[in-house]
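Support request, please re-run this one:
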Amino acid sequence: MTRLRIQFSACRRALILTDTPRPDCPDCDGDGGTAHDYGDYETGEYAGTDWEPCTCWDQSRCWTLLPLPRCPRWLRRQRPDADPWAEPPF
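Re-run finished. Output below.
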């Protein structure tokens, strides 16, 4: 049984079809992997998290469904008088 879903890929500017983790997987409980926190050897403080992917899914399985065009340059420009931090008028 395949567990596919549609996602937006910002790096490819496309809609892609990807595989998802098995929801009833006993190893990862449907999360797709296990996170392992680790600490610094000298101080014992938190230093990061390692991610170990589960075998119930393959992260590299993805297919491009629809490449998306870029907006024209004239639509990407912002008005110079527009303040992006201004509060809405209500």
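The chain has a mean pLDDT of 81. The chain has one domain: 4-69.
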